[in-house]
Design a protein that fits this description.
Blueprint lengths: L1 H8 L27 H5 L16 H8 L14 H14 L3 H10 L8 E2 L6 E2 L2 H12 L3 E2 L2 E2 L3 H7 L2 E2 L10 E2 L4 E2 L10 E3 L6 E5 L4 E5 L8 H11 L1
Antiparallel strand pairs: 1-2, 3-4, 5-6, 7-8, 8-9, 9-10
């Protein structure tokens, strides 16, 4: 989401533009509805599963499936749409996703202990590196001497009601972000989790970033997580 906000800031990507604008493989495909970049980022594309990063021709494969997609009709958490969003990033930047992340985000933040290969998984990091990214978001797009994006692009990252797309749903989702309501956190706290149970929270109300990295949930995770937030 942070990467996409940077491209939105520089007018390289329009979140509500058809994916076909950036990926020619989707032009002329017989599909009901218009698949947009925002659909990819908020899990309403109709795609399923967690694959695609490993396929150089993934956009062609995905375009072949597009007639079967229920675009904007359901919420389906998946990594496949993020892989396709990664292809959009590569198309407009001329760089691979790992190279783009390193050059435009990790290096400016001095995140020396982070390695990202995939778009929705296969990343390794440390609490300090993730905290720097969290501070960037807490600062609404700025960190140190760098300005990554302005307020409008920051707003695009934040969760928003999906009932604008799917009538009647209670879900809220942004560019890879959701709201969190653990005890003691301020209203509007946002972030994301991980299959490893890593914790990443940005709490603007309390001017706070909370990060815990881990390999897996482990015994007693939920109990200790509750105590962690009570302590904070």
């Amino acid at each position: 989401g942070t990467l996409m906000a940077m491209l939105v800031e520089h007018r390289r990507v329009d979140l509500d533009a058809p994916v076909a604008r950036y990926l020619p493989a989707f032009r002329g495909t017989p599909v009901e509805g218009t698949l947009t970049v925002r659909h990819l980022m908020n899990h309403t594309s109709g795609m399923q599963g967690h694959w695609g990063d490993e396929d150089n021709d993934f956009e062609e494969l995905a375009a072949g499936y597009s007639p079967e997609m229920l675009i904007g009709e359901t919420y389906q958490y998946n990594g496949t749409a993020f892989a396709l969003a990664g292809k959009v990033i590569e198309a407009v930047s001329g760089e691979t996703v790992p190279a783009f992340i390193k050059r435009h985000l990790l290096d400016p933040l001095d995140c020396c202990d982070t390695d990202v290969v995939g778009t929705s998984w296969d990343g390794l990091s440390t609490p300090l590196d993730l905290a720097r990214i969290g501070q960037l978001l807490l600062n609404k797009g700025a960190y140190g001497d760098f300005r990554f994006f302005e307020y409008e692009a920051y707003q695009a990252i934040l969760p928003r009601p999906l009932d604008q797309v799917i009538p009647g749903t209670w879900r809220k989702y942004g560019l890879g972000t959701v709201f969190f309501t653990e005890e003691g956190l301020g209203e509007g706290t946002f972030g994301q989790g991980a299959a490893s149970s890593t914790i990443f929270r940005v709490d603007p109300e309390n001017d706070l970033v909370i990060v815990v990295t881990r390999w897996q949930e482990g015994d007693g995770y939920r109990e200790h997580k509750e105590k962690l937030f009570q302590t904070i």
